[in-house]
Amino acid sequence: MTRIKKAKTFAALHRRGDPLILYNIWDAGSAAAVAGAGAKALATGSHSVAEAQGWPDGEHLPLDILLAVVSRITAISDLPLSVDFESGFAREPERISANVARLLETDAVGINFEDQLIGGQPEGDLYPIYPLEEQVTRLRAVRAAADAAGVPLFVNARTDLVLRQGDISQHPALIGAVIERGQAYAEAGATGFFVPGLVTPDLIGRVVEATSLPVNLMTKPGMPDTTTLAALGVARISHGPFPYWRAMAQVRDWAAEAME
Question: InterPro entries from the entry (predicted)?
Answer without folding.
Answer: ICL/PEPM, Pyrv/PenolPyrv_kinase-like_dom, Pyrv_kinase-like_dom_sf
